[in-house]
Amino acid sequence: MQQLKKLYKQILSDYICNQNESDLYIGQNLIKQMIQKNVSPEDVISIHKQALEEFYGELPETVIHAYDFLIEVMVHYGLKVKEHQSLLVKQEEMRIEMDIAAQIQNQLLENEVPKTKCTDIGMISVPLRKMNGDYVHFKYDSANYLGVAVTDVVGKGVPAALCMSMVKYGLDTLEYANSNPSYVLEVLNQLIEKSVDDSMFVSLFYARYNLHSNIFTWSSAGHEPSLYYNAAEHTFYDLEAKGLLLGILPEVKYSQQELELKENDFIIIMTDGVTDFRKNEGFDAREKIKELALSFQHLNAQEMCNTIYQELLKLQDFKLYDDFTVVIIKKNKLF
Amino acid sequence: MNKKTIEIITELDIITARKLGRNEAKRIGFDKVDQARITTAIGELAKNIFFYAQTGKIVIEETIREGIKGIAITSIDKGQGIGDVQKVLEGEHSPTSTGAGLPAVKRLVDSINIESEIGKGTIVKIVKWLS
Amino acid sequence: MNVNIQFREDGDLLVGFIEGEIDTYTAPVLREELEVINLSEGLTIELDLSNVNYMDSTGLGVFVAFYKKVVKENAALKLVNLSGRLTRLFEITGLSELMEIEKGGATNASI
């Protein structure tokens, strides 16, 4: 400290004599050293004031008062700056923890798109923030049944992600791919209703596909209706199913419906992030998706998903407003 | 030794506490910068009382240890108390409750000691020695 | 983006006019406003959504939580003057089966 004080006085007196740029530069470097030695702003001012007193003898009283005032406010200023810095450090710590949590979530929720003989499956799921509130779960027993769940937790970020882990484990405990969709929803509903607070809920579309009979059975809990394209009729149908969101009432019964997938038919399952066009009042997103799907139906399911995502993103000026998930199941040509 | 007690009831009492503290610091022999630090610390303690505990008091006194003089300031309130003192000092406490300014106070003085009981109140004692 | 709510009391009927956008950012504001309502048995709360021009699922969460609270207190909740878009949202989610919902009249057809 004494050393630094001496240096400061020296540099200051040099500058007062010559006003050299180099003295200013040296002065700035000295401040760096002072910060390392934990010299506070008010100390620097005090040193400055003492230096002036040494150079010029007694300073005018008004100037002394002015310095005292400066010292006083700088004590507070220094404190607030330190508080601010510690906030930044904490924020950084939280950011790192969030990154780790997001990684863990990704690993937990990772689910490979199954490869089956007679269907072509594609999927895209893009989170708005670090953690995804959408989740796609596949069950495939490699012989008879394919199960697919597309879910959206209300809310975003960490709370949604925590709730999502629960949904995943709920789905994991339902071991078999041949479970009835309505049964799956009833079980999950009880699990979620018991575990989360009143403003938290989950929408979920569950479908089971019989790989032998090509019967597609679905049930929905408050989820955005999926689209079914009937290739023979060149027509889209909404897979309407009025089921209550999961987690609202304890005992809810769900209904299920079925259809037979034929050659070149396809199903588009999505979350509301896909159809929720905030900035385009009156714009019918579902029509747009149908249009896109039709013009890209020659692509494989994964390419269709990617293209639909890109095109919709373009329409929203490349800005997502919600987690975005699309799953496409195409019935392949018969062998 | 003379001991000064200031009841903190209105915002003006914060100023009074600061003024008494500065005079005392000056009398003990602290330089201008340390006077400013001690006064700021008293101000933070008094603000804590005023904003979060409504009423309480600040006690300012001279202290001595192994021949070295110092100033001791104690703030006593009957507010809601602080749950986790350690967390408060690390600044991991809500900035809108008792204890908000305590990490700052800690940086200004040589020692800080907090005794607190939820629902009963908080006693904070800080000491700064003449170096 | 903002949301605000104005209340008008009329005996056992409390009408709240909600205006603005209900999303992740504004939903907590609305939740707080609804939380302070003094619920009593026999009270009917009618929330007018004709001036809600956007709502996402977080907004639904606010209404669901409020609905549950209302039911617990033996009061009643009614959502009125919903735009086509909002009506669809309540239908898709199955909430229209649960809660009393009234679509907007002709004056609100454009919203």
Quick structural summary:
Chain B: Residues 16-128 form the Histidine kinase/HSP90-like ATPase domain. By secondary structure, chain A is α+β, with helices and mostly antiparallel strands. Chain A has nine helices and ten strands.
> Numbering strands along the chain, what is their spatial order in the largest sheet of chain A?
1-10-9-6-7
Q: What's the β-strand tally of chain B? A: 5
Output the CATH class name of chain B: Alpha Beta
Order of helices and strands of chain B: EHHEEHHEE
Count the helices of chain B. How many? 4
List keywords for this structure.
heterotrimer; B: 131 residues; alpha+beta; Heat Shock Protein 90; five-stranded antiparallel beta sheet; 4 helices; 5 strands; globular; C: 111 residues; alpha/beta; Transcription Regulator spoIIAA; five-stranded mixed beta sheet; 3 helices; disordered C terminus
Structural notes for this entry:
The complex is a heterotrimer of chains A (335), B (131) and C (111). Helices cover 48% and strands 20% of the residues of chain A. With 335 residues, chain A is α+β, with helices and mostly antiparallel strands. In chain A, strands 1-10-9-6-7 form a five-stranded antiparallel beta sheet. Chain A has a five-stranded antiparallel beta sheet with strand order 2-3-4-5-8. Chain A has two domains: 2-84, Orthogonal Bundle (Methyltransferase, Methionine Synthase (B12-binding Domains), Chain A, domain 1); 102-331, 4-Layer Sandwich (Phosphatase 2c, domain 1). Chain B starts with a strand and ends with a strand. By secondary structure, chain B is of the alpha+beta class. The longest helix of chain B is centred in the first third of the chain and has 22 residues, at 32-53. In chain B, helix 2 (32-53) runs antiparallel to helix 4 (102-108). A five-stranded antiparallel beta sheet of chain B has the order 1-2-3-5-4, with helices on one face. Chain B has helices at 11-28, 32-53, 85-89, 102-108; strands spanning 3-8, 56-65, 68-77, 111-117, 121-129. The model of chain B has no long low-confidence stretch (mean pLDDT 88). Chain C is globular. Chain C is of the alpha/beta class and 111 residues long. Chain C has helices spanning 27-35, 57-72, 84-92; strands at 3-10, 13-22, 44-55, 76-82, 100-103. In chain C, helix 1 (27-35) runs parallel beside helix 2 (57-72). Helices cover 31% and strands 37% of the residues of chain C. Chain C has one domain (3-105): Transcription Regulator spoIIAA. The chains are: A alpha+beta (335), B alpha+beta (131), C alpha/beta (111). The A-C interface holds A 152, 154-156, 197-201, 203, 221-225, 242-245, 248-249, 272, 276, 278, 281, 322 and C 24, 31, 53-54, 56-58, 60-62, 64-65, 68-69, 91-95, 97-98. Chain C: Keywords: Phosphoprotein.
